[in-house]
Design brief:
The chain is α+β, with helices and mostly antiparallel strands and 273 residues long. The protein is 36% helix and 24% strand. Bound molecules: zinc ion. The site of zinc ion has 8 residues, from loops.
Length: 273
């Protein structure tokens, strides 16, 4: 799917509702919320609670929380600091926004599945999901798609703030360390991580009665390809991500990579875990 950030009106993939101002406000973190949303935020703000949705302000605790959770204001599966109404229950659609996409991929998964019993594989995968979700959420990431041997984290300014690229790198580093050192009885896991940044479509993508929150486009594709180039415990990032964290990691290794499906080589950096 090719998406051009220059012409968002015509570049939206088929079957996706037009960009809504609500999605732009949520994901970019710009307060261009329409009046009903601003009013809703204020109303929720008047209800006393320590824990509330970072997007719409709905309280998760306190005397109004029960009533609100009955209509969908429960913590999202994608990030417990946001309510499900703001993410997975939101209408289809989204916006072209700045985003950092991170993939963490288990190395040698097929071989592992062959060597271990089904129980042990389940235990390892469970452990991998738990450890990696913790690392991503601690840096205010959103959990993207989950496959058998891979997790995805999305970092948008609307949630992670202006340093969203730096937060993605911190999440990658703690993920590598946590997965490596928290060994289960079934054995240890090795992961490779790829990270890319840029503008692409983020929102609820779906059709035929199914939708899920996702980032689609070139940034996601590059992140996936960089992940494939990362060996055990390595973090490989694209130039746009590296520029944002260069001062913190001046000794990263730079290499030109030929990536599948890319006409020109892509500059990549290996960041020390
Ligand atoms: Zn909300």
């Amino acid at each position: 799917m090719e998406l051009s950030p220059r012409d968002p009106a015509t570049a939206l993939p088929k079957g996706i509702a037009p960009m809504s101002r609500r999605w732009v406000a949520i994901l970019r973190g710009e307060s261009t919320l329409a009046f009903p949303q601003r009013a809703g935020r204020r109303l929720f703000g008047l209800m006393p609670s320590a824990a509330r949705c970072k997007f719409c302000n709905a309280p998760f605790k306190g005397r109004y929380a029960g009533t609100l959770s009955a209509v969908g204001y429960t913590p999202s599966r994608k990030n417990p600091d946001i309510c499900a109404r703001c993410i997975e229950h939101a209408p289809e659609g989204g916006a072209i926004v700045p985003v950092t996409v991170l993939f963490a991929d288990v190395r040698g998964y097929t071989a592992l599945c062959e060597q271990l019993g089904p129980d042990e594989v389940a235990e390892l995968v469970q452990h991998f999901y738990e450890t990696s979700s913790k690392a991503l959420l601690a840096q205010e990431g959103l959990l993207g798609q989950i496959a058998g041997d891979e997790v995805e984290g999305l970092f948008v300014p609307g949630l992670a703030g202006p340093n969203y690229r730096r937060k993605a790198i911190e999440a990658a580093r703690s993920l590598v360390r946590a997965v490596r050192y928290n060994e289960t009885s079934a054995g240890s896991l090795e992961v490779g991580i790829g990270v890319a940044s840029g503008e692409e479509f983020v929102g609820n993508v779906g059709g035929g009665g199914y939708k899920d929150f996702a980032a689609v486009g070139d940034v996601t594709n590059i992140a996936a390809r960089l992940t494939a180039s990362a060996r055990n415990g390595q973090i490989v990032v694209d130039e746009e991500t590296y520029t944002a964290v260069e001062r913190a990691f001046p000794d990263a290794t730079r290499k030109d990579l030929e990536l599948k499906g890319k006409s020109a080589p892509v500059v990549a950096y290996w960041i020390p875990p």
